[in-house]
TrEMBL record:
<protein>
    <submittedName>
        <fullName>Uncharacterized SAM-binding protein YcdF (DUF218 family)</fullName>
    </submittedName>
</protein>
<dbReference type="InterPro" id="IPR014729">
    <property type="entry name" value="Rossmann-like_a/b/a_fold"/>
</dbReference>
<feature type="domain" description="DUF218">
    <location>
        <begin position="76"/>
        <end position="240"/>
    </location>
</feature>
<feature type="transmembrane region" description="Helical">
    <location>
        <begin position="7"/>
        <end position="30"/>
    </location>
</feature>
<dbReference type="InterPro" id="IPR003848">
    <property type="entry name" value="DUF218"/>
</dbReference>
<dbReference type="InterPro" id="IPR051599">
    <property type="entry name" value="Cell_Envelope_Assoc"/>
</dbReference>
<feature type="transmembrane region" description="Helical">
    <location>
        <begin position="36"/>
        <end position="60"/>
    </location>
</feature>
<keyword id="KW-0472">Membrane</keyword>
<keyword id="KW-0812">Transmembrane</keyword>
<keyword id="KW-1133">Transmembrane helix</keyword>
<dbReference type="Pfam" id="PF02698">
    <property type="entry name" value="DUF218"/>
</dbReference>
Length: 246
């Protein structure tokens, strides 16, 4: 019964509600023999497909499977890219927290540190006026977890993947480091690797923060419109990859 309710809710709440209204409008136009039904019907199908969880899975899966997790990471520094942070929000030992993507990356970075005791380079600045400085927040949280301050380097100016690469290279070169182990979300890794390659840094990818499972399962919920977050994340990455080629 609960799954039936979830299925119905999917078409009564946005964005499913928009699909439902467009479908009803299209039916009304067909009955009136108004040729505008082609436009409303096409828009209805487009929004429906765009907001399907299945669409997001199919789009993001090739990104997340591009690089595999190395069984034994090799490098001389763990390089973590930021992925968003809140400003002024309460934390256990200060203010500001890393967002979901960045928090998952930080957890993987910490686990890598515990296994390798390599220095950590955090790259990420203040992206928006109401966001926190990612590298500084990450540094505070790593220290709270027991990482010595002298093992943490920060690059707190970057606001894009391209500037992550450019600004991180300066620190890597200054500290005579050669082989960064790059930690970022699996969907973001192809674009990150490309940007670092362009500045002459060949990283060992260490993907984390997976958004979808490796196995595809078909069930009714996959065909109910949702927020489309995964779809839009994937589209952003494809656009970013295209832009990075120039």
């Amino acid at each position: 019964m609960e799954y039936i309710i979830k299925f119905i809710y999917g078409f009564l709440l946005p964005p499913g509600l928009i699909v439902t209204l467009l479908m009803l409008l299209t039916i009304g136009l067909v009955r009136r023999r108004n040729k505008a039904w082609r436009w409303t019907g096409g828009l209805c199908i487009f929004i429906y497909v765009l907001c399907l969880p299945l669409t997001g899975i199919l789009l993001i899966h090739p990104l997340e499977t591009r690089y595999t997790l190395p069984a034994q990471p090799h490098g001389d520094v763990i390089l973590m890219l930021g992925g968003g942070a809140t400003l002024g929000t309460p934390d256990m030992n200060g203010r500001g927290q890393l967002s979901g993507d960045a928090a998952n990356r930080l957890l993987t970075t910490y686990r890598l540190y515990k296994g390798t005791h390599l220095p950590v380079l955090l790259s990420g600045g203040k992206v928006y006026p109401d966001s926190g400085v990612e590298a500084r927040i990450g540094r505070r949280q790593l220290i709270a977890l027991g990482v010595p301050p002298n093992k943490i380097l920060i690059e707190d100016k970057s606001i894009t993947t391209r500037t992550n690469a450019i600004n991180s290279k300066k620190i890597i070169d200054a500290h005579h480091l050669k082989q960064p182990i790059l930690v970022t979300s699996a969907f973001h890794m192809p674009r990150a690797v490309l940007n670092f390659d362009k500045v002459g840094i060949h990283v060992q990818p260490y993907p984390t923060d997976y958004l979808v499972s490796r196995q595809l399962a078909l069930y009714p919920g996959q065909f109910v419109p949702s927020s489309g977050d995964v779809t839009f994340t994937a589209l952003k990455e494809y656009v970013g990859l295209l832009a990075s080629e120039f």
